[in-house]
Amino acid sequence: MNNLAEKIRQLKREKNAVILAHYYQTPDIQDIADYVGDSLGLSQEATKVNAEIIVFAGVHFMAETAKILNPDKKVLLPDLEAGCSLASSCPPDAFEKFIQAHPDHVVITYVNCSAEVKALSDIVCTSSNALKIVNSVPKDKPIIFAPDQNLGKYIMKQTGRKMLLWDGECVIHTAFSIEKLLELHKEHPGASIIAHPESEEHILDVAKFIGSTAALLNHVKQDSNDEFIVATEAGILHKMQQAVPQKKLIPAPAKEDNTCACSECGYMKVNTMQKLYDCLQNEAPEIILDPELIKKAAIPIKRMLELS
Ligand code: 13P
Question: Which residue among 84, 132, 209, 213 is best mutated to probe the pocket of ligand 1, counting the most ligand atoms within 8 A of its Cβ?
Fold first, then answer.
């Protein structure tokens, strides 16, 4: 067993800590985590934690969500630079003005946003439950959906309902090349294209299955096909390949020619085993939020959890 992994396990026991990790973390971090999941699963898991310390192996908004759900616990993030292009595309001041300009709208925000933006929202959603959350709003109520315009457009197509969209997007999910994807599909005509709904419309149009990271993982387990082209961050391939070792999983190609032809989120990947160890050892960096902000941001998150 890896020495650092063993040291992390020992510290975790000594300090009564749990590690929650997103599917986009590196394989070594996923392997040492107590729970690996998608954004919804991680929020649900965060409500069940008994440990005193939560180490969140993911990005900043996810650790904030865990803190909002556990205001009395210590929530650590191995690297505070683990950001999110979607969250930074939606500054709270500008978003507040946008909401004020459309006062009668129900504000649904994708969980990939800051605590301040959540505090301005009526309901939070994730890619797992966005459809359900939007459908929970009475038909005659206009909706603001932020910050992911691609998820928003996908939900509009699914529901036939018009929503006012914020124009944010995920740099990773918009990096896929449709031309290269179709070329790759020609080389593997039997493969199913599966995609995360943060991807652009032209990618979703050719996908046979669309879902959150957890839904994509379930799909490759349950579908009878044995070859898939996967359009989401490449970290998910670790758990997928563990679940279906006999199946062929091919990462969707990015527009830019990068060395591995797959898309990796630089923010997710700033967390390393060493930083995970150091943050447990030092009990820092810690997520600190103003108690008033926690109270306000908890309301739309709890609404989402009740509806999920
Ligand atoms: P899910 O975790 O809902 O699949 O979304 C992925 C993501 O946006 C991570 O930032």
Answer: 213
